[in-house]
Amino acid sequence: MKVFFDSSMTSVTDFLTKVRPVSVVRNIQIILVFLTLLFVTYVLSIPFFGQSKVNTDPDGLFSEGKIAPETIQSVKEFSYEDIDKTNLEKQKAKSNVPYAFDKDFGVLASGIDTNLSEDLEILRILIQEGKSNPATVKDRIPRWRNRTNEEIQAILDYPKKEKLKNFIQQYTNLIFSKYCIVKEDLPFAKELDKAGAKIRNIGTQDHTTIIDGNLVIPRSQIYKDGPVTAVLSKLASEKLPNVSDSLLKAVSRIGLYYVYSYPACNYNPEETENSRLKAANAVSVQKSRIQANEIIIRAGDVITPEVKLKLDMMNLYATRANLASIVSIFLTQCVLIVIVGFYLIRYRPNRLNDLSSNLIIFFTLWIVIASIYLLSKVFYATDSDLSGVYYFGMFVPVGMLCLLLGFVYDEQLSIAIGFFLAFAVFFASRYNPTSFMLAFTVAVMSSIYGRRLLKRIDFLKAGFLLTFVQILVTTAGYLFDGREFFVSSGAGFFKDLTNSNLFRITVMCFVNGFASATAVQFLLPLYEYIFNIPTRFKLIELADTGHPLLQQLLTKAPSTYTHTFMVAALSERAAQNLNLDRLLVRVGVYFHDIGKIPNAGFFVENQHLIPKPEHIDKNNPALAAKTVIDHVLDGIEMAKKARLPREIISFIPEHHGTSTMAFFYHKALQEISSSARKNINKKDFQYPGPKPQSKETAIVMIADSLEAASRSLDEVSPESLDDLIRKIINSKLAENQLDESGLTIGDLEIIKSSFKEVLLSSLHQRPKYPKPEDTKALESANSKKSKP
């Protein structure tokens, strides 16, 4: 069973890590990007999809007056034209239009002034005739007949009869200018008080004024309504201050009679209706809004006309997908993917040239996108109050994804993916800026810190870092939104604290931060095993000299084992000085010569330890060259069976590149006849390659040749080492072995100095130690000399 499982996993690893043409990988990436685009667009567009209709027909389950059999909830937000609301607004607009009245100031001259002059003339004649008593006056002047004897007597007693007309005219003019006296009673008196009156003055200069509705007075109220009479009488006392009370009363009563007899205002219903129609037509169509996830009616509730209208509108609008919103989300995702793509091409063009890396990134991204959908369903549920305390971005595991990608790959790739994910959170959070800032800052910080995860304690530090960042951003969001951190209820400080928003968001930040760090620790071994990726922890495990392959190398090819560790020392120092992954280099060197294990005695470094007469005859150059080439192929096969990561396996063929085995090729040319030399194929004496594809494998190529050559130095000095290192590097350059590695001239200078440091420290000359017997002889000689 174990053999079958190991074999299956080896096959899976081979399939995932198989070297494929870049064009094939790019086609796979296009498919994965397209699937991601569709998936993200679908998840973010769910609120804009339609929903099933409900039957609101008279015989339907949701007709007006019936009991709702189930709860109906709108799946998206939409607005609709609300006819009832529009009619209500039109009615309000009509009710606010002032009532129209026409005021004819010509009545003053044609009616009141004429009759007043006639009555005062009769009074003058009566006084001349000596008939100036109240009874006679009331008999001769019919319009004064309802006045009391005291009021008539006050008129008769006033010595300046010529001023009486002026007093009465002033008073009537005051009433005409301030009030609107109408003949008929007004059935809309209450509405008039609210809306006011629009008075069109005619008879003088036609113009319009707006007055309060209580200034429009039906003439019947002049005598019947005590408050109105009192107000009008008070007007006389304010405008005629130098008149006695008895005369003032008489003047006001007589003036009110003339006003009553000749009302100057008339209600204009046509003008009023026209103004109302204009106001109603000016009202815009009113819309009502149904929020996403709003419960329109609950099961068991009675369906009212208002609810039925909402259900009808939901049937009309919600059954159609909001195509514009979906297209908008799709186009936005396209733009974001293009931005991320250009960023990765600019900074990491070769990072995603294998299938396993693409599957890791897209598979993990899909998991997070799916979690965004599930979390949004819970977070924005109608019966949930989470949005009142938390931000949606606090729940999404952005930190987990970016911490994982930052650790496995690098911060550039992780930040690019985090940037895309932050906008997905922004859309899913209903365009909440704090949720976007939470996702983006967590993505950046976790991406940067991911490359600094060197020990297990660093995961704990990462949890604290993510928690701290989220608390800062959430606090800023609370301040910006004006939310309450802490509200005292009088139950005690600690109880109020545990019930406060401050405590809740702090706990949530801790949960998200440490859950992300813990999830990465859980996923890493899983990803390492399935996708066979060389994480730092995986490399540390492989660097253990107790690894079965290294143990075989030690026992079967001990000199190769020693050579391996010397090459590792050289390569690791150079990688460190070039800021490369020195751990990857060290482990790659450990396994670069495992292919020598099957034929260890053939190779020169092991022959003195494993002498066997049946070894391949080195006098046969072609066969010897094939054996040397086979150690590369054998090493690759052994590494695959041991499920070594592809990045480690690449050191086996690339540290030889396509270089020529000069010794065997030269010997082949030397030993055969001149006619047979034409049949020698130089490729038979060349390693299969490929050439070094990275700086790391190129360093190992140089170090491997240098370590072997350094053993033949007669004298170890800085000058001799400089010459040797330069010679080896120039030979690799001459064969174009470093063309595809990315090494620069500056890098080669750093490599030279790094190798020189290591070789000087390891190949230095030690002083010759004296023999013990010589030391004892010197001691004896010194003791004899010291005796007297």
UniProtKB/TrEMBL annotation:
PROSITE patterns: HD (PS51831)
Domain HD, first and last residues per copy: 560-709
Segments of this protein annotated with the region Disordered: 764-788
Cited Pfam families: 7TM-7TMR_HD, 7TMR-HDED, HD
Transmembrane segments: 30-49, 323-345, 357-376, 388-408, 413-429, 435-450, 462-480, 502-527
Domain of life: Bacteria
Coiled-coil blocks: none
Keywords: Membrane, Transmembrane, Transmembrane helix
Descriptive protein name: HDIG domain-containing protein
Protein source organism: Leptospira bouyouniensis
